[in-house]
Specification:
Strand content: under 5%
Oligomer: single chain
Largest sheet: none
Helix content: over 70%
CATH superfamily of the largest domain: MFS general substrate transporter like domains
CATH architecture of the largest domain: Up-down Bundle
Radius of gyration: 22 Å
Number of domains: 3
Shape: globular
Order of helices and strands: HHHHHHHHHHHHHHHHHHH
Length: 458
Amino acid sequence: MRPYVIFASAGLSLLMYAIDGSAVAVAFPNFMKEFGTNVLWAGWTISIYLVAITSVMPLSGKLSDSFGSKKVFLSSLILFTGSSLACGFAPNIYTLIAFRFLQGVGGASFIPTATAIVSDQFPESRQSVVGLTASIFPIGGIVGPNLGGWIISRYSWRYIFYINLPIGILLIGLILLLLKDSKVLSRPHIDFVGASFFFGGILFLMIGLNLIGQKLSVGLLLLTALSWGISIGFLFLFLRHEKKDPSPILDITLLKSRPFLAANLYNTVVGVAVFGIFNIIPYYATSMLKLSTMVSGMILTPCAVGNICTAVVVSFNLRRWGYRWPMVLGLIVTSLTTFLLDQGLQLQRVIGIHFGSVETIIFILMLFGIGMGFIFPSSNNACIELMPDKVATITGLRGMFRSIGGALGISLITVILHLSSTPANGFRMVFLSFGLGLLFTIPLAFLMPTGRKGWREG
């Protein structure tokens, strides 16, 4: 019985993590209203969370090896739960951003440590339990926006953070009582320096983007240039350090591979467009379509359902279809639906179809999710085929580039919206530029593995 309770606890931690990530997107407009802030600062509540996860997650597996999964998992739960409480009490947007960063640091270890824990509990059925663990995230993608919309409409956005408290306290108690300390078999080198350089490079890049969106002046232009100069400096130090580090976050030798570069540029652009747009949809729904907060969360459900259903079909047919054409088709579908987010209502009037704004956006987002369902299974496997003997390394890098893309995407969207003369013009520019960006990514798919015999690395 004990292993099943531990499995349920690990799964519940991942569900809490997934729900929190998607629910905050629904609260985005409420942050602006309550704190009297602009879209630039509100966007940081999502992007800083992604940056924290990306910076810490590559280290978390090695931390588990050094200190044991139980200690790392407990520390993560305590930090995530405590910072959730702090987010709920945040008096202004700046403290909320700071606490969201801490929340991301805590949540970053959930995936690797929870996976390691359930693998240890069920060694004979490891593949099945790991697969079940991964299936929790799509559920969180459905529950999070709906639960978040309901909580915000009935109570306050602060309760989307408070709801983590009883769950977190319960999980801390269960792990303390039931999980035994794992034997530490090694003391691997942990690249804290590389992670710090990488975090600094991405952070100052985003700060520079944020400064561009402020009122134009010579001083701000100089600050922007300084921020980007510091970012370039940190990234240069990161790359130089990774060449010398015995156990780097990023193996620099991989950068010499053209397919590897293509795959991760592909993942970055997909992260920019797909994650950026998904997180901004609730704000679009409330500001442009005048939908309620609850409905703005509900309309994300068809996107998640379309993604899940399509991904299942594509996953079972990859051997027959290969990777390339599902990736290309997914990019085309998501690109066209991105254009439709701006022109869908006008288009249906031209062709004589009369649906309400809710029905139209639901249909478009379902198509968007279908496109995602084509992209992710095929690109995931294409990346793994680059180095099938290093699945964990490639999977971690893939997630890192997508998350960084998502953080940069949100920053770009908020800058565009803030600089635009009207919200309508801003969203039009976002949907047009991001849709074109997805189309321009298609050639990268032809530099990646096909999933068929005969492919060779270029």
